[in-house]
């Protein structure tokens, strides 16, 4: 079976974890600080705050910017539900703007239509490993004095016009096992604003920067040194992982480009796509997925139901019509692209997709 995703963990990660276990310092400690420094330098930010999940990173980033009740945050409906849920956790309201049909990222022109006096922030999602149009989004934010919190949970190493995702506004990354790099589970907030970094670190640790002195309401959302040790080893490999993903994606695009019924993944000029997912538009999407499964090829639909159409959000009163997102949800299919694939694996994926459409 060729899986849709597979984490790559080796001797370096095992040795790093063994070192931490042997030290006796297994909760948040020096490895977390080391990882924060390394990741902030990688993204071109001055600070980072490591936490226990990507969802926690989004939640804390919002709280650090004082976003809460009566505020509105504009975001994408075409993403994993954690993006919008993190806004609800603060008491604020997610407001959905439709996406671009080619990148699947939030459309800056649609953002403009949603801004009102309650709008406090924009939360773009760098979906599938390609940055949103951050030049346009940052200009909108500056014009309207809005906070920008980047959901970069799928975009480790992605770039927009030479600048890393997560370095435009306040970034939030996930290190779930299937991401481009992992800490087993974890997340991180990136920023060049010292106050936001300090508040983020307080919020993750019961509102405290000095033990037993609590200055604000906080949570227990810390990363462990065990996770950070894995993260340090994985960060060393990240650019190599991404290069493998890009190579596999290029093979897929070349092999699929002539197939009627397929729209291959696209990379916008001036952007670096790191292909967390290689996502196509496909006619007869569900039948293609079933066919590939029979042939031993895993696929994924990311995402089959836009957030504004999820039952809970409909109960909250969301009745938006967002046609580009809704159409994408009916057509997208992610194919294997991860670094563990061999050249023969990629060629098999291409061959079987061609066979499906030849016989359709």
Automatic annotation (TrEMBL):
A Pfam family hit: DegT_DnrJ_EryC1
Coiled coil segments of this chain:
none
Q: Which UniProt keywords apply?
A: Aminotransferase, Pyridoxal phosphate, Transferase
What Gene Ontology terms for biological process does this UniProt record contain?
polysaccharide biosynthetic process
InterPro entries (UniProt xref): DegT/StrS_aminotransferase (IPR000653), PyrdxlP-dep_Trfase (IPR015424), PyrdxlP-dep_Trfase_major (IPR015421), PyrdxlP-dep_Trfase_small (IPR015422)
Q: Which family does it belong to?
A: Belongs to the DegT/DnrJ/EryC1 family.
What name is this protein filed under? UDP-4-amino-4-deoxy-L-arabinose--oxoglutarate aminotransferase
Q: Which organism is it from?
A: Methanosarcina mazei LYC
């Amino acid at each position: 079976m060729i899986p849709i995703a597979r984490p790559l963990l080796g001797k370096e990660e095992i040795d790093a974890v063994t070192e931490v276990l042997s030290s006796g310092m297994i909760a948040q400690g020096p490895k977390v600080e080391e990882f924060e420094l390394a990741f902030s330098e990688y993204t071109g930010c001055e600070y980072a705050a490591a936490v226990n999940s990507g969802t926690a990173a989004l939640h804390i980033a919002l709280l650090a910017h004082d976003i809460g009740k009566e505020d509105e945050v504009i975001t994408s409906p075409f993403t994993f539900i954690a993006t919008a849920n993190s806004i609800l956790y603060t008491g604020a309201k997610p407001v959905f703007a439709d996406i671009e049909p080619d990148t699947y990222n939030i459309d800056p022109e649609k953002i403009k239509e949603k801004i009102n006096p309650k709008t406090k922030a924009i939360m773009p999602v760098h979906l599938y490993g390609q940055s949103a149009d951050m030049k346009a989004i940052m200009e909108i934010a500056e014009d309207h004095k809005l906070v920008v919190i980047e959901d970069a949970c799928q975009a480790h190493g992605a770039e927009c016009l030479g600048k890393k995702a997560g370095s435009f506004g306040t970034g939030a990354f996930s290190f779930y096992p299937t991401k481009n790099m992992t800490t087993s589970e974890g997340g991180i907030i990136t920023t060049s604003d010292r106050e936001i970094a300090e508040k983020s670190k307080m919020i993750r640790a019961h509102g405290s920067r000095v033990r037993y002195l609590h200055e604000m309401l906080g949570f227990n959302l810390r990363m462990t040194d065990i996770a950070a040790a894995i993260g340090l080893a994985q960060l060393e490999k990240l650019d190599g992982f991404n290069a493998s993903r890009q190579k596999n994606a290029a093979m897929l695009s070349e092999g699929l480009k002539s197939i009627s019924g397929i729209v291959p993944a696209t990379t916008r000029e001036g952007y670096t796509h790191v292909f967390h997912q290689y996502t196509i538009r496909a006619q007869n999407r569900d039948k293609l997925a079933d066919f590939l499964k029979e042939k031993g090829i895993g696929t994924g639909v990311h995402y089959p139901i836009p957030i504004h159409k999820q039952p809970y959000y409909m109960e909250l009163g969301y009745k938006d019509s967002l046609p580009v997102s809704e159409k994408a949800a009916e057509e997208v299919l992610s194919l294997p692209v991860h670094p563990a694939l061999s050249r023969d694996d990629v060629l098999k994926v291409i061959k079987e997709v061609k066979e499906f459409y030849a016989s359709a």
